[in-house]
Amino acid sequence: MKSKTGFRLGWLLLVHLLVIVPLAQGQSYDSQLAQLEEYYSRALTDWQVPGMAIAIVKDGKIIFAKGFGVSDVRTKKPVDSETLFPIASNTKAFTAAALAILVDQKKISWDDKVTKYLPYFKLYDPYVTENMTIRDLLTHRSGLETFSGDLLWYGTLYSREEVIRRARHLKPTFGFRERFGYSNIMYMAAGEVVAAVTGKSWEQFVKDEFLLPLGMKRTVLSTNDLSGMSNVATPHTDFNDEVIAIEYLNWDNMGPAGSVISSVNEVSSWLMLQLNRGIWNGDTIFTPARSREMWTSQTVLGISPFMETNMPTTTFRSYGLGWGLWNYQGKMIVEHNGGYDGMISQTCMIPEENLGFVILTNKNSSLYYPLMYKTLDVFLGGEEKDWSAIMLERMNKRKQADLEAKAKQLEARVKDSKPSLPPENYTGVYGGEMFGNAVVKIENGQLMVQMEPAPLFIGTLKHWHFDTFEITFEKFPSLPPGFCTFVLGSDGKVAEMKIDVPNPDFDFTELEFKKRK
Q1: Exposed site from 204, 391, 449, 506, fewest CB < 10 Å?
Q2: How far apart are CA 508 and CA 484, in angstroms?
Q3: What's the DSSP call for residue 79?
């Protein structure tokens, strides 16, 4: 996913070399890898991440593959290079490459209309529906805001097709093809195009075309496949000043956007296939022409003031077909990150150097980001910079801002106010066309909200002030408490329920909950 979290920031300590020089062809990597290994190990402690694994490939070989820390804070089992982690939105490159194979086979074109293969596909505007292409699905330019509609699939019982059908109710933030808005749902549709064209499920096609040829024997495409498997990392998050283990959540319904689970050893094979432009052991899986297309800018991304100051050699950022593209130290970077709940991943390639690496971590943390830049600096000769200090200062300012915002919320709370109605008058069925129904009920004297499409989304309601209640989804400790406000109609009865849980991944305000009965 986004990552969905795939877009969080965070950082790490830099090491002590005064001068870092680029590696020459054929040079031994021992000193550089020893430097990085020490850095990686200290970073794990600095960022209070239980475990991670990292692999680096150069010139068609794995030159570094190692695990750090533990796979689970409870069992303390060590991580190694075979430990499985969800790679989340790094899955998107598999979906793009699957479609590239079909382009090579002349079964599709990147610019074919989506409705040619998915007649049920429909978005917010007839023109957009009729003109959305496969290329559009892969380049995050639908007009929807980043992560729009993710609550349609996250934790729900809806199938891929049902999620895609319900996406017609999502409201755009931008014009069609106007700007970048990261969309998991469009990648789900891309995976359904693969199924429609081949007659195989997306999962079976990915297994046949990538996992089997590349020898990715332990890589799976569903959390259901983890049953009985050993050496599997557990997701973690921060909760009440502790690092806690959390349960896996099944992502089958959004598979083409984020369901691959793999190890750094096996992702290394994927990166080497990519760096070799689709050729594996002499066999063409996808052609170099398709590789170039996937690594060609499609949607422009901006350069932030922070990047201008701290990454001055980065002068462009864009999104290709399943890959993020930018430049650093005079080299093109091809990369992607991914955010599963409690797991963050990063893949990164420098094609000109025939170099790539993968970072897999088992906590909601931005540790991957300083690790990426440190690794790039060591190999590309970047300026020695204390990324950790820079980013920790930035993060601490954000934390302080969050604390101040919470303090303002408390100040704004009207003490000693009471709800307008007795508790039973808030109960009933609420819903809308896009998401479906939520039921408000009383259990053991406590008001609760149950999201019918998402059985694990059970919210506990505690009175805040007037007709607003604080809502906590206890089975999702990564989500902060939010607010549930009941809106009264002119007759004094509840007409609508509005939920807002501020967080970087899911927009609860998109969900409509009109009182139905």
Answers
A1: 204
A2: 10
A3: P
